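Continued from yesterday's entry.
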Amino acid sequence: MSSFTNHPNHSYASAAPSLPESYRQDQRPYSSSSSSYYGQQPPVPKYGQVSSSSSSSSSSHGQSWFPPGTHPDVIRSFQMVDRDRSGFIDENELQQALSSGYQRFNLRTIRLLMFLFTNPKDSLRIGPSEFAALWSCLGQWRAIFERFDRDRSGKIDAMELRDALYSLGFAIPPSVLQVLISKYDNGSGRRVELNFDSFVECGMIVKGLTEKFKEKDPRYTGSATFTYDTFMTMIIPFLVS
């Protein structure tokens, strides 16, 4: 068995920073008794969760699977790439659908999104409810990205990445930040900057690993004990995406 402990300077009592109104709307805390920066529940439905008021039967276009109130543009983007009308799309179709509403994401980011937003029993394709949650999450992350892209260059540097992740509830130590940012260092000697695609990739790695860790630390102690096999199963998807 292996024991893993979070950074010793990690604060669990910090008050949440001020967020844009668009981000605060419909935000659900991970735990009503916890205000820590251990990583908070994203302000979207749980991955794969379908609203109880939505129909469980599919139409020819899968529209009935979308949660009530889903914006028509989201439904349209999904239907546009679901050419076989199966009600599900794969990673290439997801990449195409998101490119119509955001920007073109690389397949590494798409695979991370697929891993985090799909049902573990069907991780190779994504359905309407998961797609709606993913789209909503990206919209909120776009608002955060633009908030910290103060010069409107379309890119953020390491310190802006740190602040953006902090505003999302992730207080990562400097050593982890350095590892994340080094992934995008091309060796030119210039300051490393991330576009929105890279920001989402970094954010999903931090968010995903944090949530996997929280599953093993239900009392929010900052430490957990699990087997080597469990540890490898947790981290490998984030390394090979």
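--- second protein ---
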Amino acid sequence: MTITHTYSSIAEKSPGRVAIQTESEQITYRDWAQLVSQTANWLRSRPQPSMSNRVAILLPNSLAFLQLFAGAAAAGCTAVPIDTRWSAAECKERLSISDADLVITSAFFKNKLTDSKTHVVLLDHCMADISEASAALLPTINPEHPFYMGFTSGSTGKPKAFTRSHRSWMESFTCTETDFSISSDDKVLIPGTLMSSHFLYGAVSTLFLGGTVCLLKKFSPVQTKEWLSRESISVLYTVPTMTDALTRVTAFPNSPIKIISSGADWPEESKKKLAATWPHLKLYDFYGTSELSFVTYSTPEDSKRKPHSAGRPFHNVQIEIRNAAGERCQPGEIGKIFVKSPMRFSGYVNGSAPHESGWMTVDDMGCIDEDGFLYISGRENGMIVYGGLNIFPEEVERVLLSCAEVENAAVVGIPDEYWGEIAVAVVHGNTDARKLKAWCKQKLAAYKIPKKWVFTDSLPETSSGKIARSSVRKWLEEGAV
């Protein structure tokens, strides 16, 4: 079984149902199932060495992107999305790390590949060949086979490639059905880049379940508002920064929409404001990582009852908090978060694989309360050690983001001769250091309050909408403070 194996049965049962809808085109499940099979057979028919085990895709959000991604998965290949925003040097680096056999791109982006040794196929050429390819049934694929390769930079900024198996995402699909209650009846809006696994997963899981994917070419608050008002959208995938932008343009209609938000960094104040203004919205947020996939989630009721929590474990996930000695912590005691899950990744490319025990950690720290709800302190390797005291940047950022005048904020540690490290806050907002110090004093121990403050017009973000902490640290090291 693969992440695409339901397409043919959905096409037989509901051939006229729309699978994917964009601003300029749409496709039914009857045509989608055929197109994916043709794409897979085209990939499988390519002569060596071009017949690819690893297929890189350098394209913006589009029906073609999803077609190539799904076709590669159905063929037994590993799809490697390449960000159109990366420089030529960054594209070359990722293609080298991935050891991709070919990269499919449009003429517009081909200039990003001039220095790459990877074989390039232009989109127009491959689409013409795919239209002539067979739609015959495909061979059975081992569910443990990797179908997706992504990149994560962690705290260092240096890219690391990881792979996910068909089985891991199919296990995740059960969470989408069981814990988020998403089904074939849903019309799902994907406003963010498919380079983010959150939005890519939202699209691919919807197609697996038989729903309709509404795909934007790129995120625009105004365009997202138009789709929400024009179409009968029932599910919206988003991240906190996007949700805040949508709130500012009053994007939400007076109809029930389920919001699936990635990140335990969605500030409590933002959630409260959203719920108060649009009480009919159903707010779900979850904590997860590239390596672990889904870990915990909060329902609308959970967010009201446990507003500071990252939620409870998904139905197929186990969590343990362990101290430095490897012993299990008591409720409320902070330690390292270990997860046992069938959704974990297959491993890093040319690197480590998950432990045989099934338990795994990405070095996030936190605790569990008496009811089994997880609270995240921050990442161990991002922890600032100030005069022997531990400061988690994420905790300070949550306090800063709860201030109405702050648009965005990042806290990082920089070396200090006396203290070892000090916390520096980089803030985008209409406020000043004096006001923010007073705000933090109400909510944080004195030693956690940043010792230096830098104000900026914007903060660098990753493709998933999170702060690019390594870029912020590099900027500070280059003389911003």
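The longest helix spans residues 29-45. The radius of gyration is 23 Å. Will compare against the first tomorrow.
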